[in-house]
Sequence to fold (613 residues):
Amino acid sequence: MSADTTVDNSATDDNHGDGETRRDFLYLTAAAFGAVGAASFAWPLVDQMNPAADTLALSSTEVDLSPIEEGQAITVVWRGKPVFIRHRTAKEIEEAQAVDVADLRDPETDGDRVHEGQEKWLVMVGICTHLGCVPLGQKNTDVKGEYDGWFCPCHGSHYDSSGRIRKGPAPKNLGVPEYSFVTDTTIKIG
Amino acid sequence: MSSGNREKLNNPMMEWVDSRLPIFSLLQKEYGVFPTPKNFNYLWNFGAIAMVMLVMMIVTGIVLAMSYATTTAEAFNSVERIMRDVNHGWMLRYIHANGSSFFFIAVYIHIFRGMYYGSYKQPRELLWILGVLIFLLMMATAFMGYVLPWGQMSFWGATVITNLFSAIPLVGDSIVTLLWGGFSIDNPTLNRFFSLHYLFPFLIVAVVFLHVWALHVTGSNNPLGIEPKGKQDTLPFHPYYTMKDSFGVVVFLVIFAGFTFFAPNYLGHPDNYIPADPLVTPTHIVPEWYFLPFYAILRAITFDIGIPLTSIVFIPAKLGGVLMMFGSIAMLFILPFLDKHPVRSACFRPWYKMALIIFVVDVFILGICGGKPAEGLWVPLAQFCTAYYFAFFLVIIPFLNKKEPVLALPNSINEAVLNKKVA
Ligand code: HEM
Ligand code: FES
Fold:
């Protein structure tokens, strides 16, 4: 840049008496570009923490239900999480259906949580909706809580025989994953 | 840090360096002749002790990292290998694990000292806030470190604590997924925790530097809480306090060594010697002892907050617990602005002293509650103590601002010290 140009420039600046100059505009644009640039570099740094492609590419799990006797439950792993599959007894189903939904913290009917015609099969993610412990109740020898379902020992949440939260700090019912019946005795989770 | 009125050093080598980078002058000014109130008691040792513990954690941590393996398949076994096969590995790991506890002991006493003698008050507010920041970073560091051995408590402690963030409305679940790098605590989580566990101690070093810098601007507080008025009130830091601090450090380290060598697992939890199992929750999850009071506050909120007799809920129990837990630390941050009473030291504030002693007992009881299962009488007890915790900061201290009488203070540190000798 020659000396002449510099002189010219300041002369132009002086012409704008109100203090808004071409230089101010350039400063602002430069700062704005800098900020956008910094943010677009910061995002990959944060986003790399999100689940990677191979973690996301999770297969679904097929489960054969035929060996599970009435009153029994099994736990399978899906996406690194325990999934509870329970073959409910008539008493458990009846208890679950008899509840007045209006009394529930997270109102859902038992019908919302099972597949029609397959009421005896309850399939849920076995993770307490409070802070993520695995509730007890899968084994016949486990404590099942005050509602004949599951009990989370971590901070004392009680779930009923439909896996709905009834007492304790957990805010929501045990989650029901997406699943479908491939045959009458096989389900595909995910 | 300017070399403005630097005095020439006698040693030509040192003088050559000092005239280019006045590092010897700086040390002499800040740690040699630095005027320090002459009435410190032993509670003033814990800053130096905490500093020693920080260095010890970094040194043992770096050598542990040489044998530690950061995969879920190997982490547990690599720690066992450190314990059995690596030369002196058992000692290094026990120093690191117990060192964390003793680091917290030192810092808790240090914080208590600040509260008792009003060290957080004008003009030391920023110094105090930097200290609380160090405490927060320490908690994050220790939490992530405890995950590394990948035992049952590592896994389930991490599950419970990371799930806290799911209480945040709208974005909570996305944040948890972001922290985990998956759909549960797993390999990606372990890797990032190790990475950050390595980084955070150095952030702590940086904040400690600012903390000490701020201290050297305002100078130290002292048990009387009155400012030194002249030379007769102070002593040069060296040799008086270098010696007293060294003595305190040695006594502290003797107790520390007692635990490390004779009861190395006393402060730990046996379940952490069981490898992590994502399908089995231990019947009773407890964090490390130094988190227990905060854990108790978290669990104390078992009720939703909303309009009574309707189903309208503003703050569900889970979010309430999380807010209270973070709020309990926020109280420490804002303490300098809550306490407006002109007198610093609790020696001259009998009312505040009483409230503070009850507060300390309260925190101990919360710690006990945090270690018990959340059932029976422990729940209302924790709720009561949580209420006092917050009332201390938000009700009692503001009340004392106006109501607690202002007693006559000694004219000077020197006078008070001399009178005590005669009496
Ligand atoms: C503020 C300082 C630090 C604190 C409070 C801290 C705390 C902890 C804690 C509580 C554990 C679990 C101990 C156990 O039960 O086994 C741990 C483990 C570990 N830390 Fe640190 N740490 C600190 C600094 C460091 C540094 C600078 C490194 C360097 C990389 C490090 C590396 C490790 C490693 C490799 C382990 C796993 C081995 C083991 O479990 O003993 N730590 N840390
Ligand atoms: S995690 Fe189940 S009650 Fe807290």
